[in-house]
Design a protein that fits this description.
The complex is a heterodimer of chains A (447) and B (373). With 447 residues, chain A is of the alpha/beta class. Chain A folds into two domains: 273 residues, Luciferase-like domain (TIM Barrel, Alpha-Beta Barrel); 65 residues, no CATH class. Chain A has 14 helices and 13 strands. In chain A, helix 2 links the parallel strand 2 and strand 3. In chain A, helix 3 packs across helix 4. Chain A is globular and about 75 Å long. Chain B has 373 residues and is an alpha/beta fold. Helices cover 38% and strands 16% of the residues of chain B. Chain B has one domain: Luciferase-like domain (TIM Barrel, Alpha-Beta Barrel), CATH 3.20.20. In chain B, helix 3 crosses helix 5, helix 5 runs parallel beside helix 6 and helix 9 crosses helix 10. Classes of the chains: A alpha/beta (447), B alpha/beta (373). Chains A and B meet through helix 2, helix 3 and strand 8 of A and helix 2, helix 3, strand 5, strand 7 and strand 9 of B. Strand 8 of chain A pairs antiparallel with strand 5 of chain B, so a sheet runs across the interface.
Chain lengths: 447, 373
């Protein structure tokens, strides 16, 4: 699909009422709609109007302690994406699933099913679960340590890919005349026995339209980056400024190269928090309005959870107590994000209140608050300066913030020749310009 | 609606089958247009060959039903779940999501899961699904119990979304359940609020005595492979007794017989088809087949239903794709003419369609009684 003109890739990072933590309090949002299918139909329509590459859903297996003041994640990703698949026709559907609290057979089966239902539009955001309390929802075991989780993830992903390939293309014949339903010579067991899993196979779903759904990775710790360099076709990341975006981009492409892959097989897509206004003042005013709606108690709780230090008694105008924070390698949860926000506080000598406001919308991701032209400028700079192959869009509030982006920023990007005006293909692989993986035959699925 | 009485109406559910999404959509539409109460998406946890030597591929039930929730308006959407290979937390969330998106049409059919699938779920150095398989009915009972508690971890009015005060939920109405059973442990609370139905209905398949015991404890509806009205009467009497022993009201369980309806233009043609099907099924899997003209099939259904042992029928996956459309087009209108089946087009929750009350939240009830929570 790669043509002479390189286009950026744009996903909608879909989060309930929007990415600003106080978006649910804004008069333009309706938090009760986040469990209604109509809400997602509307969002899907707007996103397809903007010719976006995909919708992406994050996920967590716990009720966050911060729930009192912030809207729930909403609906479980597989279920929601399958419903959205039924009401959309082109947009990609990326769901998050953890390798720590699932079985490879289930995950292979779910994504293959979703790929069939959606006509080849799915991607799997592979996470290893950062929340220690998630363990207690799955049988009272402690969260395995960071390195162990990634070793398990390595094997998990290899097994899932082999299961996807356990039916060759064309194994499902369904020839009514000859009465042959499946060609058994093209369906292969895995008989896998590894350090973490034993999986007999084959899968009970025919090979997916995309061959393999697109593999996405979103952790930016050291373990996460080497994992992504090996297996991911797209990397979602939080980079809060252009320079660190460039450094991350170069690092990931180099790592992919060292793994014997073409840098082009890996799309680097940082998150971009957006607030769109017809004038700069209007955008800033909306951001200020949202800032006014943040609940300090929620911010303190959020930082306490991230830093593993109880900040709930601290005054907002006190400096972030850097001396009390643990070292990054003591963090077993979301280590990449910890480092990012700790660095931000250190570098800019922020007070607790300032850090809360700085991260209330973007949560450490890059932010673009301004006119359509200003936002497009920033995106163009990242894209042309090799800091990004595209972005995970994080509208401040939904669905209004998305509609503003689609109707105002997208045309600006299209006019500059940076983004597609029409979909050129049907599958997520088509949108991302990624090749469809070939099958590998009987011996190939034996790991 | 109650189990007895003059307004008693037949319950009908039908299985979806196969890996072809478009075909499943057609099946669901046929069932919905005919006024069926629900479609059931069968689960598969392993690759296996069917009676005809062909692979029994199937789409994953929750993805399938969620997609169907967008294209249907009134039919119930029941996902089969293999308890041995799943975790209650994942399943409770998916059912919650499906229940919200379908406006109260979700349900689940909890089956133990086939032992043969264990080879797909081996975890090196961990116990694996062993005990959950060896004591399958007890595990399935726990699974259902854990689901109900997870749904109840949020009281119905816990979400307040008070924009002015910045308070999303009333923390006093959301709690950890600390469920620690023999086969499953889950702390909770769930990360989605209590579903529209409170608790989506739970179905069990009942075969042996242990299956009956499990259903009597946890099931809202039971699907049974029954071969005669005499067997059905015994089953109902036994289930009544078991439910009462468990402190439940006997009328709080819907009993459905598994049925393969074979409708043809003439009785001879239908019997010929029945004969061929029985040969294909094999002697080992005897099943209930009503074969004949639409009127003859309706007669058999009426006779079973009037006996009042069962509340309706579940149409399991059928060996020929034309059998369900024929049943929907010919038998259902006949049942309706006889006043045995609902008019169709009713929009209600699955639970109320089955004539079941919306359950109280167990924690809220305890709190009202002044008990500790």
């Amino acid at each position: 699909m790669e043509t002479a003109k390189r286009h950026m890739h744009l996903n909608l990072f879909l989060m309930n009422t929007g990415h600003h933590e106080a978006s649910w309090r804004h008069p333009d949002t309706s938090p009760r709609r986040i469990t209604e299918l109509d809400y997602y139909c509307e969002i899907g329509r707007i996103a397809e109007r903007g010719k976006l590459d995909s919708l992406f859903l994050a996920d967590t297996y716990v009720l966050p302690v911060t729930v009192r003041h912030k809207v729930l994640h909403g609906l479980e990703p597989f279920t929601l994406l399958a419903a959205i698949a039924a009401v959309t026709s082109r947009i990609g559907l990326i769901g998050t699933a953890s390798t720590t609290y699932n079985d490879p057979f289930h995950i292979a089966r779910k994504f293959a099913s979703l790929d069939h239902i959606s006509g080849g539009r799915t991607g799997w955001n592979i996470v290893t679960t950062a929340s220690e309390s998630a363990a207690y929802n799955f049988g009272d075991r402690a969260l395995p340590d960071h390195a162990q989780r990634y070793r398990r993830a390595d094997e998990f992903v290899e097994v899932v890919k082999a299961l996807w390939d356990s039916w060759e293309d064309g194994a499902l014949v369904a020839d009514k005349d000859s009465g042959v339903y499946a060609d058994m010579d093209k369906i292969h067991p895995l008989a896998h026995k590894g350090a973490f899993f034993s999986v007999q196979g084959p899968l009970n779903v025919p090979r997916a339209p995309q061959g393999q759904p697109v593999l996405v990775q979103a952790g930016s710790s050291e373990d996460g980056k080497s994992f992504a360099a090996k297996v991911a076709e797209a990397v979602f990341t939080a980079q809060n400024d252009y320079r660190s975006g460039q450094a991350f981009y170069r690092d990931m492409k180099d790592r992919a190269n060292r793994c014997g892959r073409s840098p082009d097989e890996l799309r680097v897509l940082p998150g971009l928090y957006t607030v769109v206004g017809d004038t700069e003042a209007e955008a800033k005013e909306l951001e200020r309005e949202l800032g006014e709606l943040t609940v300090p108690a929620f911010g303190l709780q959020r930082l306490s959870t991230l830093f593993k230090v109880d900040l709930t008694g601290y005054p907002l105008d006190a400096p972030v107590p850097l001396e009390l924070l643990p070292k990054a390698d003591e963090i077993n949860g979301n280590r990449g994000r910890y480092e990012l926000i700790e660095n931000m506080a250190r570098r800019e000598k922020l007070t607790i209140g300032q850090l809360i406001k700085r991260t209330a919308g973007s949560r450490g991701h890059a932010a673009a608050v301004g006119t359509p032209a200003q936002i497009a400028d920033e995106m163009e700079r990242w894209f042309k300066g090799e800091a990004a192959d595209g972005f995970n869009l994080m509208p401040s509030h939904m669905p209004g913030g998305l509609a503003d982006f689609v109707d105002k920023v997208i045309p600006e990007l299209q006019n500059r020749g940076l983004f597609r005006s029409e979909y050129e293909g049907y599958t997520l692989r088509d949108h991302y310009g990624l090749p469809r993986p070939a099958g590998r035959g009987r011996e190939g699925v034996r790991l | 609606m109650s189990a007895g009485g003059a307004d008693r109406k037949l319950i009908l559910t039908a299985a979806l089958d196969g890996p072809d999404y478009a075909r499943c959509v057609r099946q669901a539409q046929i069932a919905e247009q005919a006024g069926f109460h629900a479609v059931v998406a069968p689960e598969s946890s392993d690759f296996r060959l069917g009676g005809n030597g062909e692979p029994e591929a199937a789409l994953e039930p929750f993805s399938l039903l969620a997609a169907l929730s967008a294209g249907t308006a009134s039919i119930g959407l029941i996902a089969e779940v293999h308890a041995a290979y799943n975790e209650p937390y994942h399943i409770a969330r998916k059912l919650g999501a499906l229940d919200y998106m379908s406006r109260g049409r979700a349900g689940c059919h909890i089956a133990p899961g086939p032992a043969a699938a264990a080879g797909n779920f081996g975890r090196t150095g961990e116990g694996g699904p062993g005990p959950r398989l060896l004591e399958a009915e007890a595990a399935a009972t726990e699974f259902a119990e854990a689901l109900r508690l997870l749904w109840d971890s949020w009281e119905d009015d816990a979400l307040v979304y008070d924009k002015r005060a910045g308070v999303q939920m009333d923390e006093g109405k959301v709690r950890e359940i600390d469920y620690a059973g023999r086969y499953y442990a889950v702390k909770g609370p769930l990360n989605i609020a209590r579903p529209p139905q409170g608790q989506p209905p739970v179905l069990f398949a009942v075969t042996g005595a242990r299956g009956r015991s499990a259903a009597a404890k946890e099931a809202d509806a039971a699907v049974a492979p029954l071969l005669s009205t005499a067997e059905a009467a015994l089953m109902r009497a036994d289930m009544r007794a078991r439910m009462v022993r468990n402190g439940r009201r006997a009328e709080d369980l819907r009993l459905l017989a598994e049925l393969c309806p074979v409708v043809a233009e003439t009785n001879e043609e239908a019997r010929e088809l029945e004969h061929r099907l029985r040969q294909a099924f094999g002697a080992a899997s005897e099943r209930l087949i009503f074969a004949g003209t639409a009127a003859a099939v309706a007669d058999r259904i009426e006779a079973w239903f009037r006996q009042e042992a069962i509340d309706g029928f579940h149409i399991a996956p059928l060996p020929r794709p034309d059998l369900l459309p024929a049943f929907a087009a010919k038998v259902v209108p006949e049942l309706r003419r006889r006043g045995l089946f609902r008019a169709g087009g009713e929009t209600s929750t699955l639970r109320s369609g089955l004539g079941l009350a919306r359950p109280n939240n167990v924690f809220a009830t305890l709190k009202r009684r002044g008990g500790s929570d």
